[in-house]
């Protein structure tokens, strides 16, 4: 019989609805039961695409004996970390404080009031690799709770006090300067892997926000070639490694090794949104066709496999299929030969296919040789080789489609959709892709209708027609950022107004009177603490992204409240940005916008006019991260919702551009050459 998770919308919770464990979702019923029965809570946090979450579920949560032990001694709560980032942040902090490291599945034991006192991550069914069996952990915690409770509660109180102090500790500092940015670049140079590229050792994670900062820094300090080289070399290494899906496009979560070959095979929407955007920007800056191809293939993958008919984008694809991690994505040499025939030799050379494989007897595809080099070695015409390789990739992709696909988490999360919305909107105009623009419009309209309450508040999660859960700071910030991007792609004023409304709600509901922003709203469910995480992780922190939006709104409106709030937030993390740049990379991106000084462009005139089209191309095709653009059609009623457009006219009916800084504008221009000169001035 299904347990209480059967009514959930989260695919991760639904994966556990038939466990013999008497699971509860997080909520007042479970917490009240723990109080009434005087039992500790076992809290298990994970997500649908998590490989080790599946392993622990199969080994322990499906085992009747272990389930009986859990049901007898604990109130058991299962949480999807993607739906409840607040709970994930609070209890991950506890696990890291207790063990020095964190991860998923997260296994935490709480007093009935929600205070954590013991925890870890994955526990095996039998002792191995220095880990106790999960059953041993359960019995040990039960014994401690029943026989040494005062010690348990004292330890839990100390842990909670530590978490509360950490959450509220002010960082302080002054407004960031260009010297702070230079210090961050020096830190990135010191930690850069010059051999395999990227930052850190195995496992190696993509750092799209860090790369974005380096691209921006190139514009600020053009005489230092190292930042751009670090960025572009890392982008090439990731795109040519196994972390990138060489056939279907899109990036896996991270690389298990230091050389980007062996991925952790799950695919997350937030990774692909951010990576596609930074590859797009790298192409805009360098004109390197490889970056354009990767951005395009990644977005094509999202539209093909991760898009709901209603307009939302799905959260993730699993690492596993048919019970094996990566099975869907790896290849055997004989299979390559069977599918490709005469094209197999060329494909093998380019993508490193060898009989013994490079991963547990199979091959993870990666680019090990250029097409030109392979063609020369095989005596092939280079142009024919390019065409043959493209055909081979399509043949293998079609063959792969017949395999059992990995599972897909088809819930739609507001924050991650906001990230993808921004990427699609920018790509639509830079690449002149009407399909991208249509998908971006559909997504923006979906979010504003299906994921918003009648009062204008956002909701966090949607699945199959049902939206649930109050949104977090990151939801408001990411959706507002996406709406500003789709405004600049369409100049549909309602997107700008919606972005401003959401930002104003976020400032009212999430502001900390002591400075900065909380992750949860002022009317959110009361928890053991109110999280306030300023550090960027796999996704931008809500505070950093809201700061980015505030700076843009300040440029659009000229209202000092927006810019003042952003500068105050930046000052609060200034010292951390310089010392730990990969952990504060979105903050660094926001700081570059502030320090560069926004370029405000107001356009007046019909977008059907050839001159206006050329002006728009000049604004959209190059990499221009420090500008905002507003547009009013000639002859249309002047837009009142966007102050940058107020009072702008088109003399003699000519399409006209006003280039401004701090709302002080140069003489209007009516041709592309003058616009280019004004932008450069």
């Amino acid at each position: 019989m299904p347990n209480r998770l059967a009514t959930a919308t989260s695919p991760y919770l639904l994966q556990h609805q038939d466990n013999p464990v008497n699971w509860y979702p997080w909520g007042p019923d479970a917490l009240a039961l723990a109080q009434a029965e005087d039992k500790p809570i076992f809290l298990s946090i994970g997500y649908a695409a998590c490989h080790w979450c599946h392993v622990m579920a199969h080994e322990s949560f499906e085992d009747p004996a272990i389930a009986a032990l859990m049901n007898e001694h604990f109130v058991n709560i299962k949480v999807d970390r993607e739906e409840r980032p607040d709970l994930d942040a609070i209890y991950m902090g506890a696990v890291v404080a207790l063990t020095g490291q964190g991860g998923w599945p997260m296994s935490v034991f709480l007093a009935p009031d929600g205070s954590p006192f013991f925890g870890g991550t994955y526990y095996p069914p039998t002792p191995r690799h220095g880990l106790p069996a999960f059953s041993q952990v359960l019995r040990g915690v039960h014994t401690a709770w029943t026989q040494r409770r005062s010690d348990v509660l004292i330890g839990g109180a100390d842990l909670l006090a530590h978490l509360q102090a950490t959450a509220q500790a002010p960082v302080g500092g002054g407004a960031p300067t260009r010297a702070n940015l230079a210090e961050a670049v020096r830190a990135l140079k010191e930690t850069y892997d010059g051999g395999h590229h990227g930052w850190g050792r195995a496992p190696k994670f993509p750092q799209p926000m860090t790369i974005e900062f380096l691209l921006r820094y190139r514009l600020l300090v053009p005489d230092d070639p190292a930042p751009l080289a670090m960025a572009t070399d890392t982008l090439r290494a990731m795109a040519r490694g196994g972390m990138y899906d060489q056939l279907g496009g899109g990036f896996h979560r991270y690389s298990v090794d230091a050389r980007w070959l062996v991925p952790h095979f799950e695919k997350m929407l937030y990774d692909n949104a951010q990576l596609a955007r930074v590859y797009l920007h790298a192409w805009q800056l360098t004109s390197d066709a490889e970056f354009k191809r990767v951005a395009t293939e990644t977005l094509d993958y999202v539209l093909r496999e991760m898009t709901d008919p209603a307009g939302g984008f799905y959260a993730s694809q699993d690492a596993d299929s048919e019970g094996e991690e990566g099975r869907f994505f790896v290849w055997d040499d004989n299979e390559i030969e069977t599918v490709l025939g005469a094209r197999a030799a060329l494909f093998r050379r380019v993508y490193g296919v060898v009989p013994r494989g490079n991963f547990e007897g199979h091959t993870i595809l990666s680019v090990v040789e250029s097409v030109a080099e392979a063609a020369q070695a095989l005596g092939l015409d280079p142009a024919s080789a390019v065409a043959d390789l493209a055909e081979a990739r399509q043949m293998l992709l079609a063959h792969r489609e017949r395999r059992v696909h990995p599972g897909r988490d088809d819930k739609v999360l507001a924050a991650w959709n906001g990230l993808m919305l921004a990427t699609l909107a920018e790509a639509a105009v830079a690449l002149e892709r009407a399909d991208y623009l249509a998908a971006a419009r559909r997504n923006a309209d979906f979010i504003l209708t299906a994921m918003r309450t009648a009062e204008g508040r956002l909701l966090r999660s949607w699945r199959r027609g049902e939206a649930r859960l109050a949104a977090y700071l990151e939801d408001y910030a990411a959706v507002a950022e996406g709406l500003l991007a789709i405004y600049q792609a369409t100049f549909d004023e309602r997107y700008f107004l919606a972005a401003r409304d959401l930002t104003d709600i976020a400032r009212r509901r999430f502001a900390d009177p002591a400075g900065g922003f909380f992750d949860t709203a002022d009317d959110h469910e009361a928890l053991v603490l109110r999280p306030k995480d300023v550090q960027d992780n796999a996704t931008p922190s809500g505070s950093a992204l809201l700061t980015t939006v505030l700076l843009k709104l300040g440029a659009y409106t000229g209202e000092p409240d927006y810019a003042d709030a952003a500068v105050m937030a930046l000052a609060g993390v200034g010292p951390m940005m310089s010392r730990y740049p990969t952990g504060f990379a979105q903050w660094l991106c926001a700081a570059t916008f502030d320090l560069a000084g926004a370029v405000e462009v107001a356009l007046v005139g019909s977008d059907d006019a050839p001159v206006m089209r050329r002006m728009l191309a000049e604004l959209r095709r190059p990499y221009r991260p420090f500008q905002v653009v507003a547009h009013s059609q000639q002859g249309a009623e002047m837009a009142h919702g966007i102050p940058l457009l107020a009072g702008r006219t088109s003399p003699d009916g000519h399409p006209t551009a006003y280039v401004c800084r701090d709302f002080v504008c140069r003489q209007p221009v009516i041709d592309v050459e003058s616009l280019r000169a004004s932008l450069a001035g």
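The longest helix spans residues 149-168. The chain has a mean pLDDT of 95.
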